[in-house]
Amino acid sequence: MKLNSVLFSTALLSVSNVAQAWSPTNGYAPATVDCADDINIIRAADGLSESESNWVAKRDAVTQAALKTFLTRATAKFTDNSLLNSLFSESSNVPRVAIAASGGGYSATFGDAGMVAAMDDRTDGANEHGLGGLLQGTTYLAAISGGSWFTSTVVFNNWTSVQDIINQMGDNDGSIWDIEQSALTPGGSDTAFTNQRFENISSALSEKSAAGFPTSLADVWGLAFSYYFFPSLPEGGIGYTWSTIQDTDVFQNAEMPYLIQLGKAQIPGAVSVDFNSPTIEVTPYEFGSWEPSIKSFAEIKFLGTEVSNGIPTTPGKCVEGFDNVNFMIGTCTNLIEYVEQANSAYYNAIIDQLATLFLGNSSKSADRTLAIYSPNPFKDTTNYESGSDTTFVTDDKLLLVDGGIDGQVIPFIPVMKQEREVDVVFALDQTADADDKFPNGDSLVYTYERQFTEAGKYDAFPYVPDIESFVELGLNKKPVFFGCDASNMTNLRYVPPVLVYLPNVAYSYASNISTLQLSFTAEERLDLIRNGFEAATMGNFTQDPEFLGCVGCAVMRRKQEKLGLEWPEECQQCFTNYCWDGSTKADIKNTTSIANNTSTSTTTTTDGLNYTTILTTIDSDAMSTIHFETSTTITCHECEEATPAPSIAYVTSTAECEENADWDVRAITTISCGDEERIQSNTHKYTTVSSLITTTEVCTECAEVEAQATAVTSGNANGDNNNDNDKYTYGTGSKTSTNEHTEEAVSKSDAQSNVSSVTIPTVLQVTTDIPSQAGSSQYSVIVNENAANNMGIQHLLASVVALGLFIGLS
Ligand SMILES: *[C@@H]1O[C@H](CO)[C@@H](O)[C@H](O)[C@H]1NC(C)=O
Ligand SMILES: *[C@@H]1O[C@H](CO)[C@@H](O)[C@H](O)[C@H]1NC(C)=O
Ligand SMILES: *[C@@H]1O[C@H](CO)[C@@H](O)[C@H](O)[C@H]1NC(C)=O
Ligand SMILES: *[C@@H]1O[C@H](CO)[C@@H](O)[C@H](O)[C@H]1NC(C)=O
Ligand SMILES: *[C@@H]1O[C@H](CO)[C@@H](O)[C@H](O)[C@H]1NC(C)=O
Ligand SMILES: *[C@@H]1O[C@H](CO)[C@@H](O)[C@H](O)[C@H]1NC(C)=O
Ligand SMILES: *[C@@H]1O[C@H](CO)[C@@H](O)[C@H](O)[C@H]1NC(C)=O
Ligand SMILES: *[C@@H]1O[C@H](CO)[C@@H](O)[C@H](O)[C@H]1NC(C)=O
Ligand SMILES: *[C@@H]1O[C@H](CO)[C@@H](O)[C@H](O)[C@H]1NC(C)=O
Ligand SMILES: *[C@@H]1O[C@H](CO)[C@@H](O)[C@H](O)[C@H]1NC(C)=O
Ligand SMILES: *[C@@H]1O[C@H](CO)[C@@H](O)[C@H](O)[C@H]1NC(C)=O
């Protein structure tokens, strides 16, 4: 970035703005207007506002028709349509849908845009190979940070469509989202342009300060970025107010969902926010928080009015224009403090320079990175709960940051609220918290955990696994439904909506991009949007033609449960495929996938036994989802001399098939090898064989060398994955025995037969090379051919492959 030089070369001029817009000043500065003498701009957060309730009632009529169309298409192939018919026979039975669009910088803006486009019947292809119409059936659209950039763009451009934006997308032509140049260097090499832009921003700030309202870098942030969202408006909508939305036809006719964007209030002097910092909702009518330390909502239109317990300190006088769209966007995407805390000398220098450039003598102010709401709309309010921190109602100012800074980067809180009666939440996850900058599910985990804290004590959120399990189970690699069964959530405060999780996954584009990348070419933007479309639709349904119907099932689920209606068998199947079943990483230990075998060969041992060896290459990413444990395999094959065999460390893992549960006994056998075979042991040719029934192979002439097959008795036949049952530790020969987990039945054989009984191998033991290479690792799978013949090796492989697909390894 050439920001430094640009900044230092900037000379500030004072430009007076004459913008045509909606603020009383037609510019960025708020102004005092007349209002009713008895106005109170605050209400207690004891339910939805009347405005919202009335509006939603209007929206319900619109979504009902749209959902009927969508669900009819989604379930067209179902054998039984009685569920659909029952739901639409009564308007109160119609499901309510919400979308929660995550943050994650511009990359989230475009990923969210692509996913929402997939649900929008105005998008090319969305009604053929997408979820077209679902957006028209959506009641709430919540967003955080980069997601707010997306939602603000479409909402404040008269609810335009992503398709419309795509149709005019270009570089350096002033179209919406033309961010070929970063907002921090808007002119690129054209420093005159940059200077002019910064002068415009600077004079906007001066006007606001001159009107008596403190400014900060959050204002700068909002103003600088909005040029790219509202390019057709004077100076990027310099005088555009948030509450203007109330007057638009699309809103009044309830043709769009109800927008909710989130900020977090930070205690003055604190360095950051956490779960207990109040979450602030910014909606078409209101600004406020449900949480204990505020528990009030202010009329958004009158933000900036100096009030005491909601009543203007000057009766009959209110402020308007404080709710500037640019400022509200700047607030909800204000991660400047967060960037500052990353402690990068580079970014800190930029922040210092921006502060010097734009904030004049407040450039060193402690609040310079925070969105300053002064006067504080909640001043002297009494709705907060006793025992909570009173700062937010006593301080003269309220300080806000991006709603995702506490780690909850998907805006679940508002759409999971019991009061909003949502049945299904589509969570679009564009966060980049895994090492490879794809999502790792952490936002779900944080919001899940928050419900057990003070701030979340009125909320409910479905069960999710821990972050590590999330990744290891591959739940971040394809759509997953959480909270599928209301009956399993009776311990929560109330039954939360079904959560349809749609993570950013690379389909046609490497969509794992840093949150801090601030410039994208039109091509990159289109790539991200297209990829988002594909990620929301299982690759336009190519990965699963049933996915459309499955989304329909998720939408209908809560009402179906509530009304006790018949659950279609297609939905049953969908839920088997897409619902998280409660398992965690503990349950997938020792599972692996052999989805991509590259060669199969048959080996005949010196005993004349045949083994099939399948050599498979899996990449190291897939490896990371397997738990490897080292065990020791020792030889005993034709070991007349009973030489203590060398200990060879192998890494073993077991792929477990569903049939397991039906069997009682599982066992692993260690097969030995002679001296010459020891050499071969690097290729693991004779390592292990397993089946449900003990498959024992022991040496003949070596009484003192015992081959042990450890049989583990499964204590449960009900499908539950009990760890202990999956533990196979075995050792043979004269050396190590590592049977610490065997519960019983170490069968010692004194060499009767080479192979004893064999049955369908529903447990497949895989012995792998230690996956030390960065690129790939080979491992071999040895299946006792006798067993394989019984079941058909292909079938076996198919089950394992299916498992691999489920856990996302293929
Ligand atoms: C999926 O559909 C979108 C929207 O119609 C389209 O842009 C994209 O090219 C499609 N992807 C594939 C792989 O067909
Ligand atoms: C907003 O969109 C609606 C429907 O698309 C259209 O009829 C109306 O003219 C638009 N209004 C403005 C101000 O662009
Ligand atoms: C600065 O504002 C003026 C109008 O006030 C506008 O014409 C001009 O395009 C703006 N310049 C930049 C670079 O944004
Ligand atoms: C500096 O701050 C003071 C009050 O804090 C204010 O009166 C003055 O106008 C400011 N100066 C500039 C150049 O902004
Ligand atoms: C994106 O993902 C690919 C594949 O996992 C990885 O190779 C690449 O390093 C990732 N990019 C970033 C920026 O992490
Ligand atoms: C079912 O509820 C239990 C807690 O009662 C929870 O541990 C488990 O994860 C839930 N299962 C699912 C699939 O949500
Ligand atoms: C299987 O391996 C081949 C060759 O390494 C590779 O091209 C192909 O994409 C792999 N297929 C799967 C499903 O991993
Ligand atoms: C594994 O390899 C065998 C033989 O080469 C082949 O028949 C089979 O289809 C392959 N299986 C998979 C899952 O690639
Ligand atoms: C092992 O394979 C060889 C050659 O394929 C065959 O001749 C022999 O009969 C097989 N042995 C057994 C025990 O199946
Ligand atoms: C995985 O397999 C290894 C070796 O067979 C065993 O030691 C370990 O206990 C197993 N882990 C689980 C969780 O079953
Ligand atoms: C077991 O091994 C012995 C000696 O190696 C051999 O004679 C015998 O045929 C083998 N038994 C079977 C069932 O393969």
From TrEMBL:
<dbReference type="InterPro" id="IPR016035">
    <property type="entry name" value="Acyl_Trfase/lysoPLipase"/>
</dbReference>
<dbReference type="GO" id="GO:0005783">
    <property type="term" value="C:endoplasmic reticulum"/>
</dbReference>
<keyword id="KW-0378">Hydrolase</keyword>
<dbReference type="GO" id="GO:0046475">
    <property type="term" value="P:glycerophospholipid catabolic process"/>
</dbReference>
<comment type="similarity">
    <text>Belongs to the lysophospholipase family.</text>
</comment>
<feature type="compositionally biased region" description="Basic and acidic residues">
    <location>
        <begin position="738"/>
        <end position="747"/>
    </location>
</feature>
<keyword id="KW-0442">Lipid degradation</keyword>
<keyword id="KW-0732">Signal</keyword>
<feature type="compositionally biased region" description="Low complexity">
    <location>
        <begin position="713"/>
        <end position="722"/>
    </location>
</feature>
<feature type="domain" description="PLA2c">
    <location>
        <begin position="34"/>
        <end position="585"/>
    </location>
</feature>
<dbReference type="GO" id="GO:0004623">
    <property type="term" value="F:phospholipase A2 activity"/>
</dbReference>
<dbReference type="GO" id="GO:0004622">
    <property type="term" value="F:phosphatidylcholine lysophospholipase activity"/>
</dbReference>
<dbReference type="Pfam" id="PF01735">
    <property type="entry name" value="PLA2_B"/>
</dbReference>
<feature type="region of interest" description="Disordered">
    <location>
        <begin position="713"/>
        <end position="753"/>
    </location>
</feature>
<protein>
    <recommendedName>
        <fullName>Lysophospholipase</fullName>
        <ecNumber>3.1.1.5</ecNumber>
    </recommendedName>
</protein>
<dbReference type="GO" id="GO:0005576">
    <property type="term" value="C:extracellular region"/>
</dbReference>
<keyword id="KW-0325">Glycoprotein</keyword>
<dbReference type="GO" id="GO:0005886">
    <property type="term" value="C:plasma membrane"/>
</dbReference>
<dbReference type="InterPro" id="IPR002642">
    <property type="entry name" value="LysoPLipase_cat_dom"/>
</dbReference>
<keyword id="KW-0443">Lipid metabolism</keyword>
<dbReference type="GO" id="GO:0005829">
    <property type="term" value="C:cytosol"/>
</dbReference>
<feature type="signal peptide">
    <location>
        <begin position="1"/>
        <end position="21"/>
    </location>
</feature>
